[in-house]
UniProtKB/TrEMBL annotation:
<dbReference type="InterPro" id="IPR036526">
    <property type="entry name" value="C-N_Hydrolase_sf"/>
</dbReference>
<comment type="similarity">
    <text>Belongs to the carbon-nitrogen hydrolase superfamily. BTD/VNN family.</text>
</comment>
<dbReference type="GO" id="GO:0047708">
    <property type="term" value="F:biotinidase activity"/>
</dbReference>
<comment type="function">
    <text>Catalytic release of biotin from biocytin, the product of biotin-dependent carboxylases degradation.</text>
</comment>
<dbReference type="InterPro" id="IPR040154">
    <property type="entry name" value="Biotinidase/VNN"/>
</dbReference>
<feature type="domain" description="CN hydrolase">
    <location>
        <begin position="41"/>
        <end position="160"/>
    </location>
</feature>
<dbReference type="InterPro" id="IPR003010">
    <property type="entry name" value="C-N_Hydrolase"/>
</dbReference>
<feature type="signal peptide">
    <location>
        <begin position="1"/>
        <end position="18"/>
    </location>
</feature>
<keyword id="KW-0732">Signal</keyword>
<protein>
    <recommendedName>
        <fullName>Biotinidase</fullName>
        <ecNumber>3.5.1.12</ecNumber>
    </recommendedName>
</protein>
<dbReference type="Pfam" id="PF00795">
    <property type="entry name" value="CN_hydrolase"/>
</dbReference>
């Protein structure tokens, strides 16, 4: 079920130079989506990258439907559930097919939707990026990140 939550943030910002005048009220409409995700029935068994992608595409198809609904209802940001793409209960080795290299946005500027060939194994990131562009939304999705010599779980990654 899609839950649209209107979040109004009214605040005064102080700039670096010490400005004390309030900035115009800011607000946005957020959608928070929770679903019964399609799980890997054997999360401790490693999958190849193509098999892991096939599994995640099923959940991404649901994300796509919900992004369209959220945009139709005026949402500007959509938050998807934690572990909503791949599921949970993986071992360190069995999660590997689900991981993508996510470049540090502090180090470089890259849009996965408009530059899909720039990095290998970024199909999920590309789909989320194109989804965000298509529906003019900020998306918050949980996905696994693979970095050279380090495997870590990234809990929140915003795609715009």
């Amino acid at each position: 079920m899609l839950l649209i939550v209107a979040v109004c943030l009214c605040f005064s910002l102080l700039s670096v130079v010490g400005q004390t005048e309030p900035v115009a009220d800011s607000s946005y409409v957020a959608a928070v989506y929770e679903h019964h995700l399609i799980l890997n029935p054997e999360p401790h068994v490693p999958l190849s990258r193509p098999a892991a992608l096939q599994h995640m595409q099923k959940n991404l198809d649901i994300y796509e439907e919900q992004a369209a609904r959220a945009a139709q209802k005026g949402a500007q940001i959509l938050v998807f559930p934690e572990d909503g793409l791949q599921g949970f209960n993986f071992s360190r080795s069995s999660i590997s097919g689900y991981l993508e290299t996510i470049p540090d946005p502090q180090q470089e500027s890259w849009n996965p939707c408009t530059e899909p060939g720039r990095y290998n194994n970024t199909e999920v990131l590309q789909r989320l990026s194109c989804m965000a562009r298509r529906y003019n939304l900020y998306l918050v999705a949980n996905m696994g990140d693979l970095q050279p010599s380090v495997v870590q779980q990234v809990h929140k990654y915003t795609v715009s």
